[in-house]
Amino acid sequence: MADLQKQLFVSDSSLRRDLVELERTGKINRGYGVVELARADNVELSYMFREQEHEAEKKKIAEIASTFLTDNQAIFIDSNSTASFLAPYLSVLHSAIVITNGLRLAVALDNMPAGEDVCDRRAVEERFWVAAGGNKCGLCG
User: Fold this and answer.
1) Residue 39 reports pLDDT greater than 80
2) pLDDT in tens, 76-90
3) What are the helix (H) ranges across 73-127?
């Protein structure tokens, strides 16, 4: 446990609490001095790979979701890989505010005609800035 604490820079209680939760959800097995993945295939793929998985289905979901989008809306979108397929539908909206913690979606929305996009400062590294509708994102800069 001490080695894992040092590697993750967390307290003993935080690590123990998180390990209990991971074990409860079936992601890991714990034993005395041992933590291991429950299954060899229990690995979360990177965003890039997840974005490419089931691409046709994600595009269809975005197409259906786009029927709920209209001008002058404030839209909250998280950073999941399916949400990134909404960008083409969002970019044609006028006076829309898109609030996202997804850098990929925020960059894709750079050319939104009359809206603005708001991103979570923690999600954007200092070397990036996101613009929308010609205005620098206030939370990112």
Assistant:
1) no
2) 888 888 888 898 888
3) 87-90, 103-108
Distance CA 35, CA 41 (A): 16
CA distance 77 to 32: 41
Q: What strands, in cross-sheet order, belong to the sheet with 97-100?
A: 74-77, 97-100, 116-119
Gap between the Cα atoms of 47 and 51, Å rounded:
6
Whole-number Å distance between alpha carbons of 89 and 131 = 18
CB atoms within 10 A of CB 40: 7
Q: What is the pLDDT of residues 98-112, one digit of tens each?
A: 888 887 888 777 755
81, two tokens: 């890989």
Over the range 94-116, which residues count as b (16 or more CB within 10 Å of their CB) and which as e?
A: eebbbbbbbbbbbbbbeebeebb
